[in-house]
Automatic annotation (TrEMBL):
Cofactor detail note: Binds 1 Mg(2+) ion.
Protein name: Alkaline phosphatase
Binding site for Zn(2+): D4, D223, H227, D265, H266
Annotated transmembrane regions: none
Binding residue positions for Mg(2+): D4, H96, T98, E218
One Pfam family from the record: Alk_phosphatase
Family in the record: Belongs to the alkaline phosphatase family.
Cross-referenced PROSITE patterns: ALKALINE_PHOSPHATASE
Active site, UniProt feature: S45 (phosphoserine intermediate)
């Protein structure tokens, strides 16, 4: 699970602000990762998520490529090949950098229409996110990718047809749900699907294959709050992400065979809690409206969690997941 833009300071702020324990306090294993990209000390989400997804460092903006810009297999593709069920849930467009790093191979993260085509070819079993217009209002061709996916066996729906909570995905049929034409709303503007979609994803994927599943869940807008230097936005998104982590943890405690990893791809905003803060009133300062190079915590729970102890590079998250999955 990836909290985009979630560094130590964001977690600290949320703990003080909410005055209640975060779900990650229940994770027995903690690690810390370095997140620089191949061409920059300060990574973007494309290079950061590519490092988790493929084990390769790449340049900022590149997805699913190594630093020589050659295509490299992603953990989601490897899971598909091995017959596991796969899923992606995000509060960003589904073609946005973090989810796209798990199925797309393009040099520029902004190639949203190309990324949409690659999603249709990925074999992913379950996805929820925004960005519907890159599928059915395309400028580079007139293809209706939603129709194409439906013909290939997907049940596709959207917020414009049916609320997510009223849908009953059938685990015998691949499932996709669009939450917006472009960006899903902020939690504070009424978005409420992340925890429920995370819960639905675990239930769906558990039944979709007897070989297990790989699921990536992204709380994308923690990062957007940091870019806007909007502390309330950041905190409400982090809190929503925490609710999603709780849902997955509940599943993992019951299921006993699920490894849950929670981390961020980078920190956003250079957030600091200032002197004079109290628990009721935090005084926050931002050092930048972009990402920083600070190290990022990793929390792990379940079988194989021990692999995530210590200090390592972001690419090691991929290698350690592969080891934990027993694929080596
Ligand atoms: Zn960002």
């Amino acid at each position: 699970m990836i909290g985009d833009g979630m560094g130590i300071a964001q977690i600290t702020a949320s703990m003080y602000h909410e005055g209640k324990p975060l779900s990650i306090e229940r994770f027995p294993v903690t690690g810390i990762q370095q997140v620089h990209s191949a061409d920059n000390l300060v990574t973007d989400s494309a290079a950061g998520a590519t490092a988790f997804a493929t084990g390769s460092k790449t340049n900022n903006s590149a997805l699913g490529l190594n630093e020589r810009l050659e295509s490299v297999p992603t953990i989601l593709e490897m899971a598909e090949q091995r017959g596991l069920a796969t899923g992606l849930v995000t509060t960003a467009p589904i073609v946005h950098a973090t989810p796209a790093a798990f199925f797309a191979h393009v040099p520029l993260r902004g190639q949203y229409e190309d990324i949409a085509v690659q999603l249709t070819q990925s074999g992913v079993d379950f996805f929820v996110g925004g960005g519907m217009k890159y599928f059915n209002q395309r400028s580079q061709d007139q293809n209706d990718l939603i129709e194409i996916m439906q013909r290939s066996g997907y049940l596709i729906s959207s917020v414009y047809e049916q609320p997510f909570a009223t849908l009953q995905p059938n685990f015998n049929q691949k499932f996709g749900y669009f939450t917006a034409m472009e960006n899903p709303p902020a939690f504070s503007a009424g978005r409420d699907y992340l925890p429920f979609a995370s819960r639905t994803a675990t239930r769906f994927l558990e039944r979709a294959s007897d070989k297990g599943f790989f699921l990536m869940i992204e709380g994308a807008q923690i990062d957007w709050g940091g870019h806007k230097q909007d502390f309330d936005y950041l905190l409400s998104e982090l809190n929503d992400f925490d609710l999603a982590v709780r849902e997955v943890l509940k599943f993992a405690v019951k299921n006993k065979e699920t490894l849950v990893i929670v981390t961020g791809d980078h920190e956003t905003g250079g957030l600091a809690i200032q002197p004079g803060s109290t628990q009721d009133s935090l005084i926050a300062a931002f050092a930048t409206d972009y990402h920083t190079a600070t190290m990022i915590p990793v929390f792990a729970f379940g079988p194989g969690a021990g692999y995530f102890r210590g200090m390592y590079d972001n690419t090691d998250i991929f290698h350690r997941m592969v080891r934990a999955l027993g694929w080596q």
